[in-house]
Amino acid sequence: MGKLFGTNGVRGIFSEDFTLEFIHDLILSISAYFKHGTILVGYDGRHSSPVISKIVCSTLNTAGLDCNLAGLVPTPCLEFATKNLGYDGGIMITASHNPPEYNGIKPVASDGVEISRDDEKKIEEIFFQKTWKHHYSKLGSTKSDSSIIQKYIDGIKSQVDVSNIKSRKFKVVLDLGNGAQSVTAIKLCEQLGCETITVNERIDGNFPGRGSEPTPNNLQELSEAVKKNKADLGIAFDGDGDRSIFCDNDGKILSGDKSALLLANYLLNKNPNSKVVTCINSSNLIDEIVSQTNSTLIRTKVGSVEVSRKMVSENALLGFEENGGFMYGKHNHVRDGGMALALALELLSHSNNTLSEELGLLPPSFTTKEKISCSKEDADRIISKLLDEFPDSDTTDGIKIIFDNKNWIMIRSSGTEPIIRIYGESDSQKNLETLMKQYMHKIQTLLVS
Ligand code: MG
Question: Rounded CA gap, 180 and 74, in Å?
């Protein structure tokens, strides 16, 4: 059986491998999976997204399903609305943080979470066996729904102490990355009484500002803006607004791990005896925070679908990924940059410390990641050679070579791009740099051997 779904939905280069014909067949397969009902359709700010949305809606209608078009919204907004406004499913048109020429389709179940891996397989089976119906007795219709943005913002506000946040009149820098959070994050900050400074706020499918993926290396403008404006915090979102990278009041960019540990520490102290789900490649420091709050930690393979679906089945309070994906179960079991921002503001509103002082209270952790261009075949070959050398390694996803509980290296092939990713954690910055250098060199050598 062929494969369509990567780590996060079905993605490809628009008009190359992600053609209108392909999208049509894929949506008929998704329609056969949904069977009936009303589907909410939304899209990110990519140039091809509005065109694709027309194919998506008309194909759903051809298959007899009704749809409501939400327009340009962040992925977590579409997911929240699918769950809370009683839709039978959702379809988000996005390639998240991929380069501009990409686009993608992400089906959302009626519970507001990406469909499970098993359900992805069901859609692939329908697609490859072409078992979608060819003759439809009735056509569906398309309406638009422009109310979901405010309903989503109200949903976030219902999870935090709005009056306390408002009373602090925080100064926040938003790096919107020319992406979809431009339509929600600015309004959210306004409604939380913040003074907002924006960077890269114009939605542009070419992502001319700093690209569509926020990383600690491309957020200098955010960092400068935070320092210049003496802001309380800064935050950068990815193209579809589910991931967020924070910047502290000193202009220091935090890893996704660091901000997740900060929020987890705050939320688990508030809600002890909870469950936390995270991927195998995030910092081991979470173990400490979880045990101090009598909570439970569950590790999964890398991928937000794995974390989200595990959160649903375990009814977990929190989930996170090291790349800035943070999930708050009381709101929705998905990554949500807007929700993460509101939680960080609530944390600050209940503290007399600055963000950097709050970070200083956490035990130190040193994590990083790198990537190397590499085909899937080469990545598999490298991982299998490493496994020969380190047979006791964790193979939940790729290979995690564990030296002790504070020192490890993990190598896996990306599910969305032709690259191999290398993650590491160590007990000091110096040791982390040495470890990463050693393994980057090792992988480069294996790649050409
Ligand atoms: Mg994303």
Answer: 5
Q: How many Cβ atoms from other residues are within 10 Å of residue 354's Cβ? A: 15
If you measure from the C-alpha of residue 259 to the centroid of ligand 1, how many angstroms do you get, rounded to a whole number? 17
Question: What's the mean pLDDT in 23-49?
Answer: 96
Instruction: For 244, list phi and psi in degrees, rounded to 5.
Output: -140, 140
Question: What pTM was computed for the model?
Answer: 0.95
Q: Which residues pair with 42 in a beta bridge?
A: 71, 92
* Distance from C-alpha of 100 to C-alpha of 277, rounded to nearest angstrom: 31
Collect all residues with Cβ–Cβ distance below 8 Å to 19 and sequence separation of at least 6: none
Q: Contact, 264 vs 286, CB < 8 A?
A: yes
Strand 89-93 versus strand 102-108 pairing type: antiparallel
Q: What is the pLDDT of residues 115-168, one digit of tens each?
A: 999 999 999 999 999 888 666 779 999 999 889 999 999 999 999 999 999 999
Sheet bearing 419-426, strands edge to edge: 366-373, 419-426, 407-413, 399-404
Per residue in 196-211, pLDDT (tens digit) is 999 999 999 999 999 9
Average pLDDT, integer, range 427-442: 96
Spacing, Cα 74 to ligand 1 middle (Å): 9
pLDDT at 289 over 80: yes
Render pLDDT for 340-369 as a digit per residue (tens, 0 to 9): 999 999 999 999 999 999 999 999 889 999
Q: How far is the CA of 353 from the centre of ligand 1 (A)?
A: 30
Phi, psi of 197 (to 5 degrees): -115, 130
Tell me which H or E stretch contains 69.
strand 66-72
Q: What are the two backbone dihedrals, phi and then psi, of residue 159, each rounded to the nearest 5 degrees?
A: -95, -5
| Average pLDDT over all residues of the chain | 96
The residues pairing with 75 across neighbouring beta strands, listed in sequence order, are none
Separation of alpha carbons 333 and 311, rounded Å: 6
Rounded to whole angstroms, the Cα distance separating 391 from 190 reads: 54
pLDDT in tens, 223-234: 999 999 999 999
Return d(Cα 296, Cα 287) in angstroms, integer. 9
- Rounded Cα distance, 57 and 27, in Å: 9
The helix (H) or strand (E) run that includes residue 75 is helix 75-84
The single residue listed with the structure tokens 């191999």 is 420
Whole-number pLDDT of residue 258: 95
Coil, strand or helix: which one is 335?
Answer: strand
Neighbours of ion ligand 1 (CB under 5 A): 96, 238, 240, 242-243
Cα–ligand 1 centroid distance for 89 (angstroms): 19
